[in-house]
Structure formats: C-alpha cells, structure tokens
Amino acid sequence: MEVVNALGRRKRAIARIYVSEGTGKITINKRELDKYFPSSILQYVVKQPLNKLGVAEKYDIKVNLCGGGFTGQSQALRLAIARALVKMNPEDKSALRAEGFMTRDPRSVERKKPGQPKARKRFQFSKR
Predict the structure, then answer these.
(1) Contacts of 94 (CB under 8 A, 6+ apart)
(2) Could you say which of 33, 63, 78, 91 has the lowest number of CB atoms within 10 Å?
(3) What CATH number does residue 15 fall under?
C-alpha cells in the first residue's frame, strides 16, 4: 500500500497531505473534516476533486494545514488533493484541469505602500 504526498497553497495557507488506500476518511490536524470545517460549503470545496473522479470512498487522507483563513485553507487542500490524485493516476489530469482544480490561484494580498494606510487607500487629502 503506497502513500502519496502532495502540497497545495492558496494565499497564506499551506496544505501538506498524505493519501493512502482506505475508506474515505479525511483527517485535518488530527481532527475530522466536519469538525475542522463545520461549513458544508467548505466541506464540498475540499471534496470536489474526489467527487469529480468518483473516488471519495476509496482513499484515506491525512492533512497538515497551517496559515491563512478557512476559505484559503479549504482551497489549498482542494489543490493538494487534486495533485495527489494525478500522482496516483496521470490519466485523471485532463478531467481535473477542465474543472480548474489543477491551477494554483496566484492572487494574494498586495503589500502596503509607504505614505499610505493600506495598499491602495490614501490618507485623506486636506486642501487647507
């Protein structure tokens, strides 16, 4: 029984996963998926690649998640799962790419600029 590992990132979130043959159990930081992500929408996002290929009950997934917020973490985990599935079976890549699961979302927070309160926001202009 082989263990495949993969990495997914989104914004500041990093997901390191270990996929092995099993019963479809997803453990995130030693907690169940529904305990870590109580929102059904985030659970759906995490399971999207598995459901697309119809292998949700075939693999056990252990996850180390750190950084970012819950949305970024769920999307980082989705990318990691998609990458691991492609490592296991390269023929699945085109199906996952068509859904957009193989693409790393490059958007992140723009840095703060000097002389401004935020990245784009300016201090209030005073004529007098």
Answers:
(1) none
(2) 91
(3) 3.30.230.10
Residue 106 lies in a domain: no
Asked if residue 82 belongs to a domain, the reply is: yes
Measured between its terminal Cα atoms, the distance across the chain in Å is 74
pTM for the model: 0.89
Residue 31 maps to a domain = yes
Q: What is the mean pLDDT of each run of 10 residues along the chain (128 residues)?
A: 89 94 91 92 92 89 93 94 92 91 92 95 92
37 part of a folded domain:
yes
Could you give the number of structural domains in the chain?
Answer: 1
What sign has the CA pseudo-torsion 46, 48, 53, 58? positive
Contact 61, 27 (CB under 8 A): yes
β-pairing, 4-10 vs 26-28, is unpaired
